[in-house]
Amino acid sequence: MSEILNANPTIRNASDLPSRRRQDTTQSSHKSPLGLFSTTVPASAYLPDPFSPLTLSESEGSDDDADEPIDEQEIYDLISPISDPEHPLTLGSLSVVNLPDISIKPLVPGSPLTVLTVLITPTITHCSLATVIGLGVRVRLEQALPPRFRVDVRIKEGTHSTAEQVNRQLGDKERVAAALENGTLVGVLKKMLEGCESTV
Hints:
Helices cover 31% and strands 12% of the residues. It is α+β, with helices and mostly antiparallel strands. Strands 1-2-3 form a three-stranded mixed β-sheet. Helix 4 runs parallel beside helix 5 and helix 4 (130-144) crosses helix 7 (183-193). It is globular and about 45 Å long. The two termini are 32 Å apart.
């Protein structure tokens, strides 16, 4: 990581990024410390440290929380503030994550299980940190969303030279679990997720 591969990435202005936060923060920020997500995901689902174990008491976990609709904009608002591991910028401002590249579909019609697909676009086609970025997005979503979501993070087709290999790594639960046992990698992920909204 000492040598920056893409020294001049395209950067989007924060005011140009799609977000409900700017619209809702003036209305709801004084009502609840959770802001936009106060009614979407229970407070216990937000962890100050994404690597700490989730503990729900029986009174906090309810079936009502599982039925709350979550749309693509809310997913984008969860992942766009993740920091790039190579640049001091967010994934949203670098256009690594984009609203049109997020889809939410039921696993099967009528099922409460939902497949969430996020396509990430590395800043360059030979980005060596694409797997780390994808892992950061996956960790953020798995920690913030209810268990009914099946998270699928992939490299957008045609945007990376080794997309097939990276997608295989990101889709393999055993590889992801093994990666999260690596202390150095966990430190990088914690640094990337520092800018994300977290409450106790």
